[in-house]
Amino acid sequence: MKYMMFVVSDAAPDQPSDESDIDLWVDPLDAAGKRVIGEVLAPPAESTVVRVRGGKVMTTRGPFAETSEVILGFDILEVEDLNEAVEIAARHPMARNGQIELRAFAPWNP
């Protein structure tokens, strides 16, 4: 099963962030083929929101919603089941400093 793992900031982390922890999380998952891809995202202020209304494309710079939580990055996991995805997400440093959201890939039925 494939899961999208959103790495989200939190206004009240459990402990201070240590960026060096991320390599300890990434390296074994990459070696085991459990992490398909992962990237850090640009800050929300650099985002662009796209909408189509009445056939017109409208764009807005910056985040759409005001929030204290921000998606910082993502990883795509290839795992056996949700339990394995949860176990992997719980080891991510941001599980202590923010939160991790897991979403299974849904079947595409055009």
From TrEMBL:
Signal peptide: none
InterPro entries according to UniProt: Dimeric_a/b-barrel (IPR011008), YCII (IPR005545)
Domain of life the protein comes from: Bacteria
Pfam family, one: YCII
Family membership: Belongs to the YciI family.
PANTHER family attached to this UniProt entry: BLL7171 PROTEIN, BLL7171 PROTEIN-RELATED
Protein name: YciI family protein
Naturally occurring in which organism (per UniProt): Microbacterium insulae
